[in-house]
């Protein structure tokens, strides 16, 4: 046999179920012949079996080749390839032949041969190839070395809109002048020079078949070479990839919108950012109308399941508009004005549950426009508005409003894929609007709460002139926990407090309110500053322990506080602080100082004591209490901030309120990062003509004399109407001190905003108001004092206590 070597993959072409099979002994004699073999070679088994298999070959065989195949099969590998066989009628039959590994039958070495005619291979006809090249969906052309058209198919002719006859023999730059043609020819020259293909070069142009829509094309350039590998020209292929380009542009616009819309927590600003972004990228005129409830900080949400009566139009206001024309003349309503625009069919359910409305071609003569939107129909005609998309704005199950996109100068109508982009832009903006709405509502509530918790009117009586300033933070966290207060105390004294709760928002404002109430309560108990802060520290610790562990509420991180008590009689100011900046003092001669009582830990840490210090303030001294936001400044240098504060306060300014405003204006950066509280006071002293006092012997007989002195003094001050009540109050308080307290006993009368009677003794026993029975001989003294006085109480001193009672001066 003279078989042909197999081609790659030929072995896989055999199917044993239809093969012609023969068995050949190792000597070359045929010992088996199948019916399929008879049909393939036209030889009956009687003509073949028992004879040499070499008679079946067409032409002389190659003994060496046959021996090599036999040895291969004896080694168990088998063989396959092509071989020419002789048919019974004398003609040649080319077959695919396979020889199995050798095996034995009854001790005789045998080989199994299977053969079949080769499968017909498909051949590409010239007509098929010409049809493919000519009518392929891919535009193709061949250019010569001068970049002149040699050949192009029908698809490319349609892309450019220039007939084939006008193209052949001309360059692209001659037919389509411009940067686009120059860029393409530059790429083709690069391919001719280097022989390296350029693939997937994209550009945007216009299609002859669709002149009102931009198309994107992907072009590839390949060198043409001859048999000698010489470059003879360039073949380029053009594919319309408009859909892919549009999808990429859509994704790019959406990504860009994510960084351009919602940069602030302001509803109107966010709406305007949406309009600004869409014009002129996407539309020529955009309006954003929001429901009144969205723009109102106190409004309620419009939930989607409840649309309300269908005949009622929603109450909306124009939140934003933008036009390619200066001033937006297409608009029927301006920003801030009330609107009720709903596109045809004007169904109110559009805002609640409707889908985007797409009107590719606007017809202002439509009855729906003429009947319900006559002014808008007139503007549509006047400015050539020809296409519209209206998208309802919804977020978190809440209807927010409606955004409408229109085209006029852009001749291309909105397409269905533009609706997808419009919906995505509005969805992103709606989420930002809802975030801004929620933030504004919470911020307004927090500011309202905080301002309601701060003192509405401050008075220092005759002891202090008072002015204050409070500015909430501009930080995203909203308001914080800064507070201040002026608390009238007994004996003409005044308590001053300023504090700062760590954090921002409603939680900080609510905590501030609790602390301010606690300070007022503790101050009414006449506690000295250091004791007051110790009790306040315990309160903050308890508040922290009350916070739930499930993360539903922001934990209390602590607070700082400074509490001071000014006595106009002694002109002494006693103060203590808990992690708070020291107060500032400016004496009448302009000297600035920052008295620094021991700082003490911030409230809420516990385990450490607070210490008080006392300073003497000359009359008309300026005392200022503030929070750290005032002195931090842009450089966050507290020391320099205190110096700047002292410089501003040292300037003479008789109007304390004007001085307070000047300090804030000069020291606070804009925008500010923290809440700011400032409390300024100018001290006054009670002169000798306002205070009188007497020592009282520990003898009941001395009560009458002291009572008479007090009555005469009140009359000398001109308070005739208070003489009797003063006599009774002095009698009861002095009598109790003589009977139950320890000397020395002293009576003092103070004429201030109120008339105050004070009886001091060396006993620390607290007085107790009793309700005596009708049969009791005593026990009614303090009850009588409580009935006669405006208010009464007791405070402790280092040497005992003071019982006091105040009367209103008419």
Can you describe this structure in just a few lines?
With about 800 residues, the protein is α+β, with helices and mostly antiparallel strands. A hairpin with a 2-residue loop joins strand 31 (about 790-795) and strand 32.
Structural class: alpha+beta
The shape is elongated
Biggest sheet character: 6 strands, antiparallel
- The amount of beta strand, in percent, is 25-35%
Low-confidence runs of at least 5 consecutive residues: 1-15, 299-311, 774-778
Task: Report the oligomer.
Answer: single chain
Helix content: 25-40%
Question: Termini, distance in Å?
Answer: 142 Å
Secondary structure layout:
Layout: E1 20-25, E2 30-33, H1 35-41, H2 45-48, H3 63-74, E3 79-86, E4 92-99, E5 103-105, E6 108-116, H4 126-135, E7 139-143, E8 149-152, H5 154-160, H6 164-167, H7 172-175, H8 179-194, E9 198-206, E10 214-225, E11 231-240, H9 242-260, H10 267-278, E12 285-291, H11 292-295, E13 316-323, E14 338-339, H12 349-353, E15 357-359, H13 367-372, H14 374-383, E16 387-395, E17 398-407, H15 416-453, E18 464-471, E19 480-488, E20 494-504, H16 506-524, H17 529-546, E21 559-567, E22 572-578, E23 584-586, E24 592-593, E25 613-616, E26 622-626, H18 628-632, H19 638-649, H20 656-667, E27 676-683, E28 691-696, H21 702-716, H22 723-740, E29 745-751, E30 754-761, H23 781-788, E31 791-797, E32 800-808
Antiparallel strand pairs: 1-2, 1-6, 3-4, 4-6, 5-6, 7-8, 7-11, 9-10, 10-11, 12-13, 12-17, 13-14, 15-16, 16-17, 18-27, 19-20, 20-21, 21-22, 22-25, 23-24, 23-26, 26-27, 28-29, 29-30, 30-32, 31-32
Helix pairs in contact: 9-15, 10-15, 15-16, 16-17, 19-20, 21-22, 22-23
